[in-house]
Specification:
By secondary structure, the chain is of the alpha+beta class. Helix content is about 25%, strand content about 35%.
Length: about 170
């Protein structure tokens, strides 16, 4: 980690982290998935949603609902933006609510950030919800915060009320 990176991370306070997470939520709610991809770091990215029964599960050895690297995220966005994603065409309306944002201490150039979330999904006259906790690793690239990794741990014991997980949490 360079001195400049340390300085940039030191300037990323809770208010700036909250603004960044709110911007991410707004892009997802606007279904601007291409814009959402721009919030990610350039290399070594990871988006994980573990199974409800193994919230601490390791994607390398445990079954998870989503385990996307940079390529898989791009393919997911491409599919969700097309008519091929039958579960999401026409697109659901969503409302991502982010709160209780807590910053950790920088580790190896990454800033750990946790936040609680509730995501409401409206589709075909039905409302469903996802509730849980985000675990981010943020970095600073070219003076801007970026997501190195995002882990969405669901507090729900089952997905039955929500039906499926065809949206991005």
């Amino acid at each position: 980690m360079t001195a400049a990176t340390e300085l940039d991370l030191a300037r990323l306070d809770r208010a700036a982290a909250e603004d960044f997470l709110y911007r991410e939520a707004a892009l997802l709610d606007e279904w601007d998935l291409d814009g959402w991809l721009t919030l990610w770091a350039e290399h070594s990215t990871r988006y994980v949603v573990p199974c409800n029964d193994t919230p601490d599960g390791d994607p390398a050895q445990d079954l998870v609902l989503i385990d996307d690297d940079e390529l898989r995220m791009r393919l997911r966005v491409e599919r969700l933006n097309s008519r091929k994603a039958h579960r999401e065409y026409p697109h659901s309306r969503t409302n991502h609510q982010v709160y209780n944002v807590v910053l950790g201490s920088p580790v190896d150039g990454d800033l750990p950030v946790t936040a609680s979330f509730t995501v409401w999904r409206f589709r075909n006259g039905k409302a469903s919800y996802y509730v849980g906790r985000y675990h981010y690793r943020l970095v600073v690239e070219r003076g801007e915060p970026r997501i190195r990794s995002k882990r969405a741990v669901l507090d729900m014991t089952e997905l039955r009320p929500a039906g499926d997980l065809a949206i991005i949490l």
